[in-house]
Amino acid sequence: MENLQFLLKQHVGVPCRPVVEEGEMVEKGTLIAVPEGLGANLFSSVYGTVKEVREDRIIVCPDKMQKEEYVQLSEGTPLEMVKEAGIVGMGGAGFPTGIKLDVNLQGGTILVNVAECEPGLCHNIRQIEEQTDMTIEGARICKEITKASKVIFAIKAKNRHAVEKLRAVLQKEADMYIHLLPDIYPMGEERAVVRECLGKLLDPVQLPTAADAVVINVETVLRVAEAVKLRKPCFSKNITVIGKLKGGEEPHVYMDVPVGTSVEDMIERSGGIDGVYGEIIMGGPFTGRAVNLEEPVTKTTGGIIVTIDFPDLHGAPVGLLVCACGGSEERMRDICNKMHGTVVSVAKCKQAAEMQNKALKCENPGNCPGQAAKCLQFKKDGAQYIIIGNCSDCSNTVMGSAPKMKLKVFHQTDHVMRTIHHPLYRRLRVSKQEEQLPGGK
């Protein structure tokens, strides 16, 4: 087994402070770093020796023989154990779960986010299918901690097998329900989940607590159950590896991958890269980032995608339409550079509101107005192509105007979608209307 690298910042907040030294022996579940402010504890995911302590990471050389046993958490209240376990939002956001659950939702709702919105990823749905009982136990614990009155599992209707599995178990559960979502990106954005399930549209600066709700990713719910019932620290991650792989085109789903494992190791477990490729993405096609093979898995890693090569624009002028639901301007410029395009114009989606930290948030995720004015700007600025990173609905509105202006459209996910044989994001073909399950469950 290769050396594992534990990044000291795997969460919202400040980096953790190492509490181990070089040469120290660690076990699976040994506390190796603690936050000094907003953050979450960091644990070793293997038995081994601390090889190096750097400013931004701890490197552990694992023993050849690895035991299943781990150092257990201290006994405490469920909330105390969740905080000690170092659980964060494992859908990608990375907000410390112990802080998120430290609220009084008397009469409110726990919204379990099972949307798994990024195309190609399927480890959340696999978890529902294979670990239904433990997932529901985690939701029950979240409900009890927050004093919520009910739990709603928000899941896309297309995942029929997982829905049926949930439905069968939830028939026995009081105050737990299913809400079916359409197959539209970004139904997994937490304000979209609140809007779809509770009918309340929050402002970009509002948290779900403004709707008497907490939105929590389905894998995070599982880790809550493990912390409270099994006294297990959070040191593993469920991951989908997909793309241009010798192991086949179907998604490779791995449960309980040790945090700190390299991207290269996960790709090799999937057969290795198949020939020439474009880039390796950590995360999903929309919000992921290009990484190298040495990049380590963190608590928020969801996907590892190996893509086909990019088309060549031969220096042609390009406009970038930056959307809150997709890649940042930096990511869009990176893609344009890899396509050998020349950026001549940049615009933001008309619903992209800029926050104090300069991040963008959509005013109404998944429900977007026309983008004709932005396309007109690109045309005036001399663009021949535009690269967009928009949600399903916003991409649909771009296609209503760009072709009429003889602008050729690329979506930032095109190379991924072509790799995994998924329809390109252009025209919206799925109804945005809410779907219901018979009997309210």
From TrEMBL:
Q: Record's NCBIfam families?
A: PR_assoc_PrdC (TIGR04481)
Tell whether Iron-sulfur is among the UniProt keywords. yes
UniProt keyword terms in alphabetical order? 4Fe-4S, Electron transport, Iron, Iron-sulfur, Metal-binding, Repeat, Transport
Q: Which InterPro entries match?
A: Ion_transpt_RnfC/RsxC, Nuo51_FMN-bd, Nuo51_FMN-bd_sf, PR_assoc_PrdC, RnfC_N
Name the coiled-coil region(s).
none
- Which Gene Ontology cellular component terms are annotated? membrane
Locate the NADH-ubiquinone oxidoreductase 51kDa subunit FMN-binding domain: which residues?
82-225
Ranges for domain RnfC Barrel sandwich hybrid come to: 3-57
Q: Which Pfam families match?
A: Complex1_51K, RnfC_N
Task: Read off the lineage from the record.
Answer: Bacteria, Bacillati, Bacillota, Clostridia, Lachnospirales
SUPFAM superfamilies (UniProt xref): Nqo1 FMN-binding domain-like (SSF142019), Nqo1 middle domain-like (SSF142984)
What Gene3D superfamilies does the annotation carry? NADH-ubiquinone oxidoreductase 51kDa subunit
Q: Organism, per UniProt?
A: Mediterraneibacter hominis
Annotated GO molecular function terms are: 4 iron, 4 sulfur cluster binding; electron transfer activity; metal ion binding
Its name, as the record gives it, is: Proline reductase-associated electron transfer protein PrdC
> In terms of domain of life, where is this protein from?
Bacteria
Encoding gene (name): prdC
